[in-house]
Amino acid sequence: MMTSKERFDMTAGHREPDRLVVDFGSTSVTGIHVLSVENLRRYYGLEHKPVRVTDPFQMLGELDDELAGILGTDVTGAKGRNNSFGFYNHEPLKEYLTPWGQTVLVPEAFRTRTDEAGDILIYPQGDTSAPASGRMPRNGFFFDAIIRQQPFDEENPDVNDNLEEYGLVSEIDLEYWKATAQKARNSGKAVIAGLGGTALGDIAHIPGIKLKHPRGIRDIAEWYMSIIVRPEFIKSLFGLQTEIAIENLSRLYHVIGDNIDAVYICGTDFGTQESTFCSPEQFDELWLPYYKKINNWIHENTPWKTFKHSCGAVEPFIPKFIDAGFDILNPVQISARGMEPAALKAKYGRDIVFWGGGIDTQHTLPYGSTKEVREEVLRLCEIFAKGGGFVFTTVHNIQANVPVENIVAMIDAVKEFNGDRY
After folding, report:
1. Residue 227, H or E segment
2. Residues 129, 126: Cα–Cα separation, whole Å
3. What is the pTM of this model?
4. Complete DSSP assignment for 158-217
5. C-alpha triplet 247, 82, 186: angle, nearest 5°
6. What strand order describes the sheet that includes 112-114?
7. I need a surface site. Which of 103, 365, 377, 390 has the fewest CB within 10 A?
8. Per DSSP, what are the bridge partners of residue 93?
9. Tens of pLDDT, residues 71-112
C-alpha cells in the first residue's frame, strides 16, 4: 500500500494512485466547523474534550490524529504562526464558551466583547483598546469582517497604505516555519502550507482585520470599484506585493526545502453563483502577469505545487489559471453555473488538479438524505478520479449544524469507492 505522500505525488502528477487522496482540515478552505468536529467526535465515540479552534475567523476545528485517522486524511497543513486577526494562534490555549453553548479551546489573545445587539466582537492582535475588526452575529457561527474604512485620497490613493500588512518575513517566522514544516513532514502525509503574502486582492484580506487601524482602500465595495476606476493603482499594488512575496518565498524555501508538497497561493474569488466577478480581459491585465511571476518562481526553484482557491462559476477562467501556472484548483463549486463535473474533467483534467468538488455543500450535504449523499459522492468520485488529478474534499468548508449522519455518509462513501474501485 502506498503512503499518503506517495499517493499525493501520483495524484498531483495526474496518475491514478492505489486509492483517492482525501483532505479534511489541511487548509482554511477545506476545513470543518468546530461544532461539526465535536459532533463527529461524539458520533465515533472519541474522548469528550474541548475542540481546539484552528481558524478563529471561520471557527474551524482541529482534527486530532485519532479523528483524522478515522476520516482517512492523506494531507496535513503547515499553518502560520499568527491567525487572520493577527495574534499568535498556538499554545497556551484557554477555554471559551461559544454563543451556541460549545466549550472550545482558543488562543490566549482571543478576546471578545458582546455589543448591545448581542453580537460578539473580536479585536485585531487581541487588543481590546483598538476598534473591533470582526463580528459574529448573535445567532451566527463564525465572524464577519468589520469594515473600518478611513478617509483616503480618492484621486491619488497611496499604494503603501494597502501594503501595511505585507513585509519581509522575520527571523522568528523563518525559525517557526522551519520547525513547523519539519513536523508536518514527519507525519508521513502530504503537506500543504499557507505561507502568506501571495493573496492578490483576496477579499478576506482587503479589510485588514489583523491591523488595528488599517489605512488605504479597505471597503469591499470600494475595492471592487477600484478594479474598474483605478487599474493602475491595482497593478502597482500587485506588483509590489509580488516582489515582496518572491523574496519571502526565496527565504522560506531556504529553511523549508522539500518538507512541503504544495503551497496555498491565493484565495481571490473570481466567480459568483451565476457568473464571474470580472471580465477575462481584466484578469489578463490585473492578475495574470503577477500570478505568472509567483508561480514561475516556485516552479523554477522548488518542487512545490501551487494551489488556487476560487469559488463560483469560474469555468471560463480555468484556462487562465492553467496559463498562470497554477497546478491545483479548489473548491470546484459544482453547483455554480458552468461547473459541470464531467465537462470539467474532460476539458481540464489533464492540466490541473481538482482539489474539491467531492460533494455539494450548498444543497446535498446539509439538506439531502444519507442516501443522496452517498450517491452523489460515488458519482463525483467516479468522474473526477479517472486518470488521477483529484483530491477528495467538500466544496469549501463543512459548516456548523450539518447533520453528522450526512458527514459520516460522505466519509463512508469515499471508503466504499476506494474499496470497490481498487
Report:
1. helix 220-229
2. 9
3. 0.97
4. -GGGGGTT--PPPHHHHHHHHHHHHHHHTTTSEEEE---S--SS-TTTTT-TT-SS--SS
5. 80
6. 112-114, 120-122, 134-136, 144-145
7. 103
8. 107
9. 999 999 999 999 999 999 999 999 999 999 999 999 999 999
